[in-house]
Each structure stands twice: as C-alpha cells, then as structure tokens.
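task queued by scheduler; priority normal; single chain, no ligands, no partner chains; default sampling; output format set to structure tokens
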Amino acid sequence: MTEGQIIEGRGGLYTVSDGRDTYVLRAKKKFRRQRMTPLVGDRVLFTPGTGEEHGWLEEILPRQSECLRPPVANITLLALVVAEAPAPDWLLIDKLLLGARMQGMQALLIVNKCDLGQTSAETAQREYAGADLPVYPVSAAQGEGLEALRERLRGETVCFAGQSGVGKSTLLNHLLGLELQTGEISRIERGKHTTRHASLITCGDIRVMDTPGFSLLEFEQVMDPVELMEYYPEFAPYAGQCRFQPCYHGSEPGCAVTQAVAAGEISPARVERYRELLEKTRQLWRERYD
C-alpha cells in the first residue's frame, strides 16, 4: 500500500496525492460500516488502480485535527483574519480561537489593510496580550508585512478564517501567487467553475485548505464549563488565587481574574467575551443529553 493525502473528494471519489502523483480512488465499504467518512486533509493508505480502474482507499491514518463544518481534517494552523475595515468581530475570533485550541491547532491573527490605519492592529495587540496569539499586521494590497507571515506558514497546513470583506483572497493571492477572484477564495485556477467542495492546495512548502465554509469554521465545543478557562493562557498566572475553588472566573466574588482586569493586567473586553462564551458553554453542557 502507498501513503498519501486526500486533496479533494466529490461524488464518492477521492483524489489523493503521494507528493509526486495524484490518484483517483474509491473508499472501501468498511468505512461506511465504521461510520467513518474520509475527509480532505486525511492521511491515508491506498492501493493505486490499474489502467482506467480507480484504486481503493484502504486505511485512514489518525487525525491530528477535525472540523465539523466544513468537514476537513489535519489543519495544523488556523490563520484568523481581521482588517482595519470592516470593523473586527472579536467574539467570532474568540470562538474560532477556542475551537482551534480544542483541536490542538496552532493559531495566529492577521490584521489586514493596515495601510488604512493602525487601530485594529493596536486593538489586537492589546486584546490578546498574554493569550499566546501572535499578531501579524499586514497590507496585502501594499505588500507590507507579508514576508514574515509567509515564513511562518512554511511547513503548515493552513486554513484562513474570518468575516467577509477582510481581504482573504487578496491576501492569499499575494502570499502564494494564486489567482483567486476577489471575495471568492474557492475560485482557483479551474476556469469559471466555483467549487463547493473542499480541496487542499500546495504552494511550495505551504498547504492551504480551500473550502467554501472557510469563513465560519465550526467545531464541537461541548465541554464541562470549568474547562473553558484552560484555553485562555492569560488566566494561568492567577490560577489558585481566587476565593472559591473551582472558580469559573464569571461573577464569583474574590475572583483573581476580575481583580486582574481592574488592575489593567487583562483586557476587560476579552474577559467580557469569555463570560459570554462561558454562559453558552454552560447552556450546551446542560443540554448535552437532550
């Protein structure tokens, strides 16, 4: 058997690359019995076909990460994108960052359109100080800040995520030399056809997950609410210092995180959004068996 990676799947057929050639394969029926669906990004073992016959997917190797919608696997780096305009949706960024960390992905934050001003970049640096989220101010249109970002992406399987209008397509065009239509990341060099299927694009030593649902990735986020704080590195210095244990860092009296906010050590807006997500997490936890 040969090892490769699924780079596209549609109509029950999977295109797999072994790094040199591509093969069109069918999935064996055992995957259906196992209730396991091959996903773009999966590392697999396969048997190539002979002549005009399709080969077969034999095994799906353990996944490093998995997204629900769009259904893709093995993203190693989530590139969150905001811009000077439109105004950043920081709650969306927090949700995506939480999902990435629950999946063991690394993440970074790109602030595009910095030629229009520095307000969003300054806000990002302030909001995520201590949150282990590197911030890259860039201007895709002017080509500013792209080389440092390009260097960080090397060797990664990247998915770009963020609200509409922040310039993700322009950013990828300049970073990777693709020919994406502005505002339509899924239009790649396949003429006028717009794909509704995820695909994995390799550009040198950078792999980009191109998916029609890239703007609002969805992860399974049902967890015990007390675990939510573990995904906020800026809370770690205050562990064990709250009056009550466990402390959810919500409305409890004597909360060390609340005191840190008052002292200007943590962004109050970041904590306010955390508490909004905490309430949502509590609701999902209560409803997990419904």
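post-processing summary
- The radius of gyration is 21 Å.
- The chain has a mean pLDDT of 88.
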